[in-house]
Amino acid sequence: MVLISREGKFMIPSGNTVVIEGRDVLLVLANMADLSIFQQTVA
To answer: How many domains does the chain divide into?
Structure first.
């Protein structure tokens, strides 16, 4: 599960969430195996 923290508000990204802004903070809840795959995908 991923949440985006932006300007004091939290959003759950969906298929139409296109832009990640420079000050966004991604909060990721995952098991270790899934987190490793996620990190490789966003890197």
So the answer is: 1
With beta carbons less than 8 A apart as the criterion, state whether 24 and 5 touch: yes
pLDDT per residue as tens digits for the range 1-43: 788 998 889 988 887 766 778 888 988 788 888 888 888 888 7
Q: What is the dihedral of CA 34, 35, 39, 41, to 10 degrees?
A: 20
**What is the three-state SS of 28-39?**
ECCCHHHHHHHH
pTM: 0.54
Q: 35 lies in which domain range?
A: 2-42
> What burial letters (b/e) apply to 26-38, b meaning 16+ CB within 10 Å?
eeeeeeeeeeeee
